[in-house]
């Protein structure tokens, strides 16, 4: 199991939620909604206070993905003020952006959603739609050493 998946699972277990907004709140991370133009969001620390900035002008579904992505930065890169997450940088090859995207994917699309024993009719496409997950990032989802195939 990947290191990031382990980290996500530990946080879910400790805080008993998959919701990135609730996780941030329980971890003492402030979420600020503001007009950011083409920027979707970013993570910063001001006077040791962690803050997730989210574009107020995008859909709630996209805000969910942004929050999960920036939470990934807050957890994995706590002492780095991250670059702005823009629409055209979602597929960044920069290591910290890949790590934050992987964190978001593992948080928003837990393995249970893909478990054959799960008797729900929830599909990967509904997950993508519900949580604003860009389809291009699904390649980051790791299921028992296998990449997710659509």
UniProtKB/TrEMBL annotation:
Organism domain of life: Bacteria
Gene3D superfamilies, A to Z: 1.10.10.2910
InterPro entries: IrrE_HExxH, Rad_response_metalloprotease
Domain IrrE N-terminal-like: 24-138
Name of the molecule in the record: ImmA/IrrE family metallo-endopeptidase
Biological source species: Lysinibacillus louembei
């Amino acid at each position: 199991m990947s290191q990031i998946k382990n980290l996500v699972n530990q946080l879910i277990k400790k805080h008993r939620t998959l919701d990135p907004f609730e996780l941030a709140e329980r971890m003492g991370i402030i979420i600020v909604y503001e007009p950011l133009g083409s920027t979707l969001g970013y993570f910063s620390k001001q006077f040791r206070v962690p803050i997730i900035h989210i574009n107020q002008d995008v859909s709630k579904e996209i805000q969910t993905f942004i929050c999960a992505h920036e939470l990934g930065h807050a957890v994995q890169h706590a002492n780095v003020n991250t670059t702005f997450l823009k629409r055209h940088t979602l597929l960044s090859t920069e290591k910290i952006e890949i790590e934050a995207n992987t964190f978001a994917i593992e948080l928003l699309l837990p393995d249970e959603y893909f478990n054959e024993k799960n008797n729900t009719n929830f599909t990967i496409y509904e997950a993508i739609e519900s949580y604003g997950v860009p389809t291009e990032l699904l390649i980051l989802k790791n299921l028992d050493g296998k990449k997710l195939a659509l």
